[in-house]
């Protein structure tokens, strides 16, 4: 990387205080339609019982393979669709049951940065109008002079020249467009920003610049971030805590250092084994999972990971594991942790089960 990643925001990982966001047993099932008359023939269990919280000024990264449901979680928090079950609570107020007519205050407090900086900006609007839109929508500017001041400040905040504000989106590079997307999210002065694969479409060096910008903004503004990503190398540099998803469920939640140093779920172990080692000449034993991810239309019984787990035993096939503490602040959904340490291959004290 030509731009070095920093860890500026990780210094305040404890992030005390009331959570800005609480998600309790969130479920989103999409109807599957087919047949001659287009009737409902089944359900897609995209998200099936997800719970987490984010403190003010904290970054929680939601990671997992494509199709695990992490982006659906972000869209559910944004109220882009109604959820099937569960609760979404923003700063003490439940928002999943709010009627559409009363959502405006929530919309201002929760903003999003999308994955593709090329399609997320209206090509027919100048940057000035793109950034002014949320300010006007929420009635935040007193007059035109105040609006101009706010726009200039936004350009300064995302490290873009002020005179670029009259240009069109196609005149910017991908990284610059993503900075505009971040500025648009900041225009509403939100408490929480959902970054849905916000750097995955960018070049490697540009990724580092955007990640560093997000860290700086979090430190300056006290923002909370839900950082949805499949790139664990990026996540390791910018998050406070990590929640790992597999097939619609969270299987492990832990502080960044704890998770990367000692993962407590076999799926997390496999994910981390695929992350490139930054030190030249260093090696890491790669864990190759057998089989493919099962379909969310018909997820396996018991532990959803048991069809691919190298440590599977009989209980895994019939009983769904619950998220339980394995150490302070670190939880995992795995029956292995109910075994004695000498029989648990994740404890570091055991011989393999088979």
Please characterize this protein's 3D structure.
Helix 3 packs parallel to helix 5 (about 175-185). The protein has a domain at about 10-35 and about 40-255: Rossmann fold (3-Layer(aba) Sandwich), CATH 3.40.50.300. The chain is an alpha/beta fold. The strands form two sheets. An eight-stranded mixed beta sheet has the order 6-7-8-3-9-10-12-11, sandwiched between helices. A four-stranded antiparallel beta sheet has the order 2-1-4-5. The chain has ten helices and twelve strands. It is found in: Cell inner membrane. It holds the Pfam family oligo_HPY. Belongs to the ABC transporter superfamily. It is a peripheral membrane protein.
Would you count the extended β strands for me?
12
Order of helices and strands: EEEHEEHEHHHEHEHEEHHHEE
Relevant CATH superfamily of the domain at 8-35 and 42-257: P-loop containing nucleotide triphosphate hydrolases
Strand order of the largest sheet: 6-7-8-3-9-10-12-11
Helix content: 25-40%
Radius of gyration: 22 Å
Instruction: Please write the CATH class name of the domain at 8-35 and 42-257.
Output: Alpha Beta
CATH architecture of the domain at 8-35 and 42-257: 3-Layer(aba) Sandwich
Summing up helix and strand content along with how strands pair, one would put the structural category as: alpha/beta
- Uncertain segments are 6-16, 350-354
Give the CATH topology of the domain at 8-35 and 42-257: Rossmann fold
Q: Report the average pLDDT across residues.
A: 88
Distance between the termini: 41 Å
């Amino acid at each position: 990387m030509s731009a070095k990643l920093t860890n500026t925001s990780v210094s305040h990982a404890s992030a005390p205080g009331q959570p800005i966001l609480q998600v309790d047993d969130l479920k989103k099932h999409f109807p599957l339609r087919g047949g001659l008359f287009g009737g409902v023939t089944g359900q897609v269990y995209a998200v099936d019982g997800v719970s987490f919280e984010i403190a003010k000024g904290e970054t929680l990264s939601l990671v997992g393979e494509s199709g695990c449901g992490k982006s659906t979680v972000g869209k559910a928090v944004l109220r882009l669709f109604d959820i099937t079950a569960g609760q979404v609570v923003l700063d003490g107020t439940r928002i999943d049951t709010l009627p559409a007519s009363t959502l405006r205050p929530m919309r201002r407090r929760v903003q999003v940065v999308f994955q593709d900086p090329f399609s997320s900006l209206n090509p027919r609007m100048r940057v000035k109008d793109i950034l002014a839109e949320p300010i006007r929508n929420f009635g935040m500017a007193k007059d035109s002079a105040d609006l101009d001041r706010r726009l200039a400040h936004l350009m300064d905040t995302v490290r873009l020249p002020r005179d670029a504000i009259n240009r069109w989106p196609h005149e910017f590079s991908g990284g610059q467009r993503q900075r505009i997307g971040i500025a648009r999210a900041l225009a509403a002065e939100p408490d929480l920003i959902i970054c849905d694969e916000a750097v995955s479409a960018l070049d490697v060096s540009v990724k580092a610049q955007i990640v560093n910008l997000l860290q700086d903004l979090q430190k300056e503004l006290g923002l909370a971030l839900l950082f949805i990503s499949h790139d664990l190398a990026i996540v390791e540099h910018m998050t406070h805590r990590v929640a790992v998803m597999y097939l619609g469920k969270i299987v492990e939640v832990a502080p960044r250092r704890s998770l990367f140093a000692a993962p407590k779920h076999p799926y997390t172990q496999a994910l981390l084994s695929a992350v490139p080692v930054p030190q030249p000449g260093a090696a890491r034993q790669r864990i190759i999972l057998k089989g493919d991810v099962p379909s969310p239309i018909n997820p396996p019984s018991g532990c959803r990971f048991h069809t691919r787990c190298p440590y599977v035993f009989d209980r895994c096939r019939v009983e769904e594991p619950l998220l339980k503490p394995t150490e302070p602040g670190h939880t995992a959904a795995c029956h292995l942790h109910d075994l004695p340490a000498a029989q648990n291959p994740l404890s570091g004290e055991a011989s393999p089960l088979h």
